[in-house]
Amino acid sequence: MTDLVISIEELRFSWPSGGEVLNIERFDLNAGERLFLRGPSGSGKSTLLGLIAGVLEPSAGHVNVLGKDMAKLRPASRDRIRADHLGVIFQMFNLVPYLSVVGNVTLPLKFSPARRKAISGDTDEEARRLLARLGLTDTALLDRRVSDLSVGQQQRVAAARAMIGGPEIVIADEPTSALDADARDRFIELLSEEAACTGAALLFVSHDASLARLFDRAVDLREINKAGAAA
Amino acid sequence: MNTILSLAWKSLMNRKGSVILTLVAVALSVALFLGVDKARTGAREGFGNTISGTELIVGAPTGSVNLLLYSVFRMGNATAEISWPTYQKIVHREDVDWAVPISLGDSHRGFRVMGTTTDYFDHYKYGRNKDLIIAKGKRFDDLFDAVIGADVAKELGYDIGSPMVLSHGLGKASLGSGHDNRPFRVVGILAPTGTPVDRTVHVSLEAITAIHVGWETGAKNPLADTISEEMIRSFDLTPKTVTAIFIGLKRKGTILTTRRAINTNPGEPLMAIIPSQALAELWSVTAMAERALLAVSVFVIAVGIVSILTSILTSLNERRREMSILRAVGARPGHIFALLVLEAGLVGFLGALIGIALIHLILSIAGPMITAHYGISLMGTGPGLTDLYTLGAVTLAALLAGAIPAWMAFRRSLADGLSVRL
């Protein structure tokens, strides 16, 4: 078993409509590593995450996730890998509006028997435990509609959802851009702690270079993406 | 699948307002459709149950539907009558088991008066060979006795012994046109049958002759009122004509030959009809209107389905985010498709279910009134296969309609990936 949870080689991606968005020779993410990927908006980072998550297919090259080349898998298998091994946190509006807080956190388990099996006890219990670790202990808060939560609280619910069932990789796409500085640092701290706890590798994407100090390693997308340089 | 079903349900609950409106649209359309269908089958059953056990009805030549309508349903008028000797000839035919003459043309406060013989009560059957039952009193016996149907008794508040004045023709009694010098008396009240019998006043054939003494020209002879009851009783009251004859045969097998024999009667021209056949002909007349009505209600259901489609399509844009979240946590595009199809199907299913409950509620409240007014029984059409089929068809149609937004979301979820441009 390789130590690389994500390994990208000679990746090229273009939208059918136009020019090349990504041209990456090499990009790796080690198991358990906390990596900061810096990229301004429009640099192709969302596309890169889509490729890693297996919802997009590369035009050329390899995207290996846990040793499996996503480019060679059928869409259903890619969906399976995403469900079983990836947790995703978006910039905002992370939650399904008609599910409860706990329902949102346990949602990935509904699509992944493997992650469901990773939890020994009651799944709702596990969701509450994770929420508590991320600082959401107030039971009255957990009963509220998710749309009534503050953005910071919503992001922590999303973090709990990304972590539940112990996926190997957690991808966070600008999860702190809507938070103020204090909340932002506190969120990244919690996220890092929790990732360390479950052993998940954390791929944190942001345009804000000042956050790099909070991670093991930092990569600038503009440096590795030749397509961006050529454009 | 359970996951998706529960997601679909929670998603609908989250959009209660628009979902309830859609449910109402579907429920009303289904209720309308089933209401039309139940009225249709109720009317058919009601009409079909009006007469049984009578193999032939004979009248003066006219349309067979027309003969059926005036002789059995008391609708419209006979164009001509049958002479008494001809009636006698038919009674004495070898193949005829019984022949009951009826004489129509008079009314009592809006109810038709029918002259007949007491044999009528033995041979006239309705529904599944049910006999007429005299609930109160007895059959007519005296010249001025009347046996009234259940509705007549109820609506006019008559009881045994109540006097009644018959009027000539079919209008309400008006001064001078009445047979007011010949007062009748109620001697019997029939049990309700749900047929036109309930709205008929039955008297003897002789009584019909008696009230027309002095009316031979068609209008009232000024001297008519001077003829006393005693004088009338002394007259020969054998009728000169009857309106129609109900016939039972000795052997059912001869029905067609007997009919032909009567139709080709060498003397007076006659027409014999088989009630069930004439009913079928009547249906072919009404079938067009029925079908048109049914088609309209089917279109109304289609509008209901379209409203499901509209509500889902309009919600699709604001739910783009939700779809990409579901994709991110591992949902396949097929899950997204199933979610939207199920939402549509659930609304269709629930809407149809509410519609079915609604129409049965309406029928259980309004049914007795409809039966009382129109003699159409809708109560026999309780929850049945039609309801089940409608439920299935509406659900299926909703699922199919849901496939349109589901396909759009499916395509979009493939194109959007994880990033959603808001």
TrEMBL record, chain A:
Gene3D superfamilies cross-referenced by the UniProt entry: P-loop containing nucleotide triphosphate hydrolases (3.40.50.300)
InterPro entries attached to this UniProt entry: AAA+_ATPase, ABC_transporter-like_ATP-bd, ABC_transpr_LolD-like, MacB-like_ATP-bd, P-loop_NTPase
Pfam family for this entry, one: ABC_tran
One GO cellular component, as annotated: plasma membrane
GO molecular function list: ATP binding; ATP hydrolysis activity; transmembrane transporter activity
Top-level lineage group: Bacteria
Keyword annotations: ATP-binding, Nucleotide-binding, Transport
Stated name of the protein: Uncharacterized protein
Species, as recorded: Hyphomonas pacifica
From TrEMBL, chain B:
A single Gene Ontology CC term: plasma membrane
Topological category with respect to the lipid bilayer: Multi-pass membrane protein
PANTHER family: ABC TRANSPORTER PERMEASE (PTHR43738:SF2), ABC TRANSPORTER, MEMBRANE PROTEIN (PTHR43738)
Subcellular location: Cell membrane
Pfam families, A to Z: FtsX, MacB_PCD
Domain ABC3 transporter permease C-terminal: 295-413
Protein name stated in the entry: Peptide ABC transporter permease
TM ranges: 292-316, 337-363, 388-410
Ranges where the MacB-like periplasmic core domain occurs: 20-208
Principal subcellular localisation of the protein: membrane
Record carries keyword Transmembrane: yes
Keywords: Cell membrane, Membrane, Transmembrane, Transmembrane helix
Keyword Chaperone among record annotations: no
